[in-house]
Every structure is written in structure tokens, then in C-alpha cells.
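# nightly structure sweep
# worker-07 picked up a monomer target from the shared queue
# config: single-sequence mode, recycle default, output format = C-alpha cells
# input follows
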Amino acid sequence: MHLKEDFPTLIQNKQPGTSETTMRKNFITPKLVAVLDRCQLSMRDSVFILEATIEALGYNTDEFPISKSSIQRIRTEKRKERAEAIKVRFQNEVPDVVTVHWDGKLLPALDTRKSKEERLPIVISYANKEQLINVPRLESSSGSGQAQAVWNAIVDWNLEDKVQILCCDTTASNTGHINGACVLLEQKLNRDMLIFACRHHVYELVLKSVFEVKISQVTANPDIPLFKKFRDNWNGVDPDKAQCYKKKLALHLTVSEIDNLLEFYRTELTKEIVRDDYRELIELSVIFLGGDTQRKFKIRPPGAMHQARWMARAIYSLKISLLSDQFKITIKDKTALLDVCLFIVTSYVKPWLQCILAVKAPYQDLCFLKSMKAYEKIDKSISKAALQKIIQHLWYLTDEISVLSLFDDDVDQETKGKMVENLTKENLSTHGKRYIPSKEELCGPLYEKNIYDFISVRSKSLFDRLKIDDSFLHECPATWSSNASFQEARKKVSTLRAVNDAAERAVKLIQDYHGVITVEEEQKQFLLRCVQEHRKIYPDCKKQTLKRKFIE
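# output follows
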């Protein structure tokens, strides 16, 4: 669907209290409406800015519709037109297989009779694209309430036959066996679905368990006493005088292992990193490993603490450990923090950064499981806590999802060959949506398994679900790089995301625009859709970016 912008067009304007009409120049285009919305400008602020701009350009302000009522009417109309055009364009372009993401957020209620309201951003993703389709208000945040809201959005956008993957956090309201949103959505869709449990959420749970076993006070509230004390005394420390823990690291890691970690972190820093806290975590890890010999990285002042973000606790812990010589801290707390930081830097940050791609999830989770078992040699309490948590979340080691490792470059050809052989193997286990190890497996065999041990004849269902031509399975893995069907299959699965970041970005969007510009429900949905589109087209205000066409 195409929209055309002319500057300016003539519109008919009726004079209040008379039958006279005048012709006004309508210069408020869809792009201008999107900019006003993105910048959160009220109708009143828009009048001041537009009137001054028209005057500065040498035009007669009487010739333009710049009253509050005119601007509100035009913005409302064009916002609706644009939002509907976005929906039609999406429906024309959407492929046969998509993922639906959702994540609830409790916000201040706009209704004076209530103090809070639950919103559920719902996002569709495919390839490298994301589309916010709705942010409904929930009467109940239960599994049934969320499932109904997601289902309504899917039906409204005609996606009933296209949604094949459900991506969400692993809370009971989402993944419960009876009343979880995923189970209820499967019933509504009348078919079995792939469940992509958010791996960032899973790994944050692992980090939480490690903190709990080492430092009990970190779970009490967002204002953790130790971290608050560090923040309050920041002006008394010199961030350029960070400690080096090479001797401590040498007790547990070889020189080559430390060098490999540093190489990995330095390579990550050359990539485009979406979040600033990810970059900060990597930089602190390099400093901790003694890799910042040229002192390129600066330890930033401690930022906000959030109860739900264990990433912030990791960053705080690293800063306190690196600057502990300048900060009054008990030996017990210093030792505990150092143990946590050693785990974070050597065993946690790397898998965290590699969480995103679904094709890497099965093999990486298996490797992390084994590494936590091996961590017993360094710290038994951390190893036990991490294992107890990750074992509860082996979502990517089920028959159907583990076969994604065929497309993982970290898996060697010999292993892929054995995976193909096992595609004919019957599997009598009934793990369902996640792999649940038996007591016998937990005693040892689980940690000896390879990724091909999780493959069976049921793994083939993935190819049907994702509409993948599996003819490459008849060829030797060594020839797959030149096999057309493999390359096409790899292209399809390589963009699948195993994290719920798309929904988290939508949560941030609704937080930014909650109660802004409009409180009318339909217009709120239109506004969020239009702002998301404008942010995609213009992620920054560089001149080259601003030259991009707003309307195709």
C-alpha cells in the first residue's frame, strides 16, 4: 500500500459560526505526524513549534491549519492511515513461518479508579524483522488471559496458519503444563507448537541462583546495601586504579584459556552491540582478565539498579571487585564477590552473549551444562547452584529443537553425520516441550552425552513445521556447503531468535509512550505502530540516515 505526500496540499476549512469556507495549505504529512509522535509532542507544543517554523520559512501562518483542533484532527487521521498501511504491507510480505513473542508489563493505570494496569506487548518476528501487532490491556495476567490476548492479535492480523513458534519467558503463567499460555495457545491453534524459551531469561535465572548461594543480601530488594554503599562512595575511588586478578585466574585457567577468552571478548567489541550494558560487561571482563594493558576502557560510575535485571548485579559486582582496594568492604563480602566475578568472567558472559541464535542454542546449552559440571573443581557451591537451575530449563535439547545443531558451525562434520544417522532412531522418552533428565542421567551419563544423543526420528518434524527441504540429509555433511537445499534451509533457520528481546523492546516502547499524546485505546495502538516504524527507518539522526525515504 503506497501513500503519497505533497507539500503543501489544499484543504477546505469552514469558519466557525459562519457558512464561509477558506482554502488552507495542509503541510502535515504522515512523516511529520510520525516525528511529532516519536518526539512525544502534545497538540499544544506542536502548535508553538509549527507556527514558529512556518514563520521562520517566510510563509503566512494564516494560510496553514495550525490550531490545536486542526492539528489534532489531522494527526489522528494520518496516524490511522499510516498504521493501517503498515498492517496491510506486513500482511502482504509476511512469510509462511513466523514467531510470536509476548511479555507482560505492569504500568500506572490511566483510569483513576485503578492504580495499575497490565499491558501485554505482542510482536511477530521473521528473518531480521519485527512487527508490533498489539499492546492490549489485560484484565488478568494469568496464562489464560495472556493466551486470549495473543490469540486475538493473531486472528486480527490473519496469522493463524503462519505462527509456528512461541517465544516467551519461562514463568509459570507462560509455560505451565495445564493453564500456561503456551499450552492454551496450542489448543486455540489446534496444533503442536515449537516453544522457544527466552535464553536470556534462563541464563539470568542461573546468575540469580549463583548470587543467592554466595551473597544472600543481593536478592532482598533493588537497593542492595553493598551496592548502594559503593554507589554512595563512588566519588572517593579512582576508577583508573583497578586491580588485576591474573594470579587468582592462574590458579584455575591456563594461559591459553585466558588468551582465548580475551580474544573472544575483543572480537565481540568489534561487533555492533545493541545495548550499552552488554558492552560495559564485556569491557569489565577484559579489565578483570588483565587484558586492558593500554587502559583503553574506563570504569563508568555505577548506574541504576533494577530487581529484574541480574545483568546490573553482574556489572556492580565486577566494579566493586576491581576497585575493592579503595572501598571499605569485609573480607567475607570481598571473597564472595570475587568468586561470583570469576564465574561471570570465565563461564557466564560468553554463553550469555551467544544466547541469541536458535541454531546455536542446543549445542551451547549442552556445553554450558558440561562446563558447570567441570566447575566443581573451582567452586562446588556455584557449580551445584548453576546446575540445579539450568537442568530445569533444557528447552533446546528436545528431539525437535536439538536438530537445529545441523546448521551450527560449532558442531563438527563427524557429529553432524551421527545426527543424521540418529534421525531413524526411535525414542521412547516423553520429554514433551523440554528435556527433563532422569535421576540416573544426573548421576553422570547426562554429562557424557553428545548432541547427537538427543536426536531421533521425531526430530524430522522440524523440517515439516518450518517447510524445509531436507533432501540434503541424503548427502555427506562435507558436501553441504555447496548443497542448494542445505543453503536454503540454513538461510531459513539462521535468523530464528531464541531470546525474547523483541518483546522487551516493545515493553520499553509502551513504557515510553504510556499516557502520552493520547489515552484513546485505538489511537494508542496506532501511535505505537507508527513510532516503531519511524524508529526502524531512522534509528539515529545522522544526515545520511535522515535522507532515507519515509514512504516507498
